[in-house]
Amino acid sequence: MTGVDVVVLGAGPIGLGIAWQCALRGCSVTVHHDGSLGAWHASAGMIAPVAEATFGESPLTALLVESTRRWPEFAAALGREIGYRECGSLMVGLTGDDHAEIQRSASYQESLGLPVERLSGAGLRSREPMLAPRVRGGAFAGIDAQADPGLLHSALLAACRAAGVRFQDTGAQRLAEVIDRRPAVVVVAAGTGTAALLDLPIHPVRGETLRIRLTEEPLRHMLRYMVRGIVDGRHVYLVPRAGGEIVIGATSSEETLTQPTAGGVHTLLRDAFMLLPELERAAFEGVRVGFRPGTPSNAPYLGELPPRDGVRIVVAAGHYRNGIALTPITATAIAELVTTGRAPAEITAFGPPSADPRGVAE
Questions:
Q1: Which of 18, 61, 118, 220 is most enclosed, with most CB atoms within 10 A?
Q2: pLDDT at residue 172, rounded to an integer
Q3: Where is the FAD dependent oxidoreductase domain (predicted)?
């Protein structure tokens, strides 16, 4: 089904990825955006199907694994540097109780067939010498990876423009206004803004991330892996990037404050320093605040809603903390749904409320 007139609402990585893939399939695509920065701006860019595997979320884990498998081809097709690295995750427990929690998670990950290597404290430090001596133990997930969200966003913008996607700065919109223009398909990929457009149970989850930079040699080259730590029951992650930058995250709350808080910065730095004391020598570069689009199940809504006034309505939103990780599979699967009228098997478990379970367009 080529030549389909498609409007995509949302210009984060999810919306841009869908627009790009639809254009590559011959659709006429316009992206509507309001110019605001979405959750991706504060994201660390982790692609972590193993470290993110959570009890009771096995369908989401399977989706993450499949999206991770597609990431190398997706990154190569963009043709630009996006900071994609298959670096793996070290899951690190500071205390005995923290280590026990990681061991329970490792047992669950192994039950799903995920590759995870259990490590003692000494084993962790042999892989990452910067870790504190008191770290008790943890595990290694070799398939976990990362991408730089800012570079990814820029690359997707360039890819969309090269594929002929048009952009329209619309400000705040109502879905009815878009439907009145009679496109064949409207794809709603507006992050937390999707709730107002489609009345779906998507809510903002506030998070803060920090940027620090190691400038001294040889420290700036020493942190090689992503670190997912538990410190006295609190969770913290560290994502090393080129040039010595490290992203530390993330707080999580239902608050609506748009400014960073001193408490959030303090908690993240304290826990990061307890795991990696040498980071106290890093330069502090800033704080970012974002609002993740959460859902009751922590999984995204991917599928088709009943048409409105003859216009097909497709939703791709609610990715919560996995927007970057799920960009390849969301983009390709939703583009297939748009162009064929049928949802591919990998996303049928994530249909939105009130969706036709067949995923078939009328």
A1: 18
A2: 58
A3: 5-337
